[in-house]
Design a protein that fits this description.
Elements (H helix, E strand, L loop, with lengths): L1 H13 L4 H81 L13 H15 L10 H12 L39
Helix pairs in contact: 1-2, 2-3, 2-4, 3-4
Length: 188
């Protein structure tokens, strides 16, 4: 609207019949055009401010996404490191059983350590999905893994007073039981 008014005043000032009328219209044109310049400058300032805010928001969003990516990568690395450590420790029990010269009377040695290793991988696939996989006690996770696949965790830990239970055949595909609690030794 200001631009239209300025154009109208310009045309009328140029077509003025008297000097007084032309001077009055020229002053009015000068005031309206000054207001128009200020309005345009203010609108440009607002546009630049909005553009700057949009750039800052995009940069902040990109930074948050980068931080989230790095956190996810760090978690994935920590999960893989813990998974390898549990696998290595449980493999010690598997192969200690498989290669042992003597066994307790009531214990049957595993027939196929490779089957136990595959069952361990299946258990680990499920265990890494748990929220507490990185925070649970490492040794408890190893004992859970051994229990789930039927390996003797007693070969790795002094848990001889803990009752041994045979593995559940569905444990490779089901969520593992809560961590076993070693039983206190009888003082009698």
């Amino acid at each position: 609207m200001t631009l239209t008014l300025a154009r109208d005043l310009q045309v009328r000032a140029l077509e003025a019949q008297t000097t007084e009328e032309a001077a009055r219209l020229a002053r009015a044109f000068q005031q309206v055009s000054r207001g128009l310049r200020q309005t345009l400058a203010l609108e440009l300032k607002v546009i630049r401010y909005k553009d700057e805010q949009a750039r800052e928001a995009a940069a902040a969003e990109a930074e948050v996404e980068a931080l989230q990516r790095r956190a996810a990568e760090a978690r994935d690395q920590a999960v893989e490191k813990r998974r390898r450590a549990i696998r290595d420790r449980a493999h010690q029990a598997i192969w200690t059983e498989a290669e042992a010269d003597e066994f307790p009377e009531d214990f049957e040695p595993p027939e196929d350590p490779e089957r136990l290793a595959r069952a361990l991988e299946a258990w680990l696939d499920e265990a890494v999905r748990r929220d507490d996989f990185l925070t649970d006690d490492f040794d408890i996770l190893v004992i859970e893994a051994c229990d789930a696949i039927g390996a003797d965790a007693g070969l790795l830990y002094d848990i001889e007073d803990r009752p041994w239970s045979p593995p559940d055949p569905a444990s490779a595909s089901a969520e593992p039981d809560p961590a076993p609690t070693p039983q206190p030794a009888d003082s009698s």
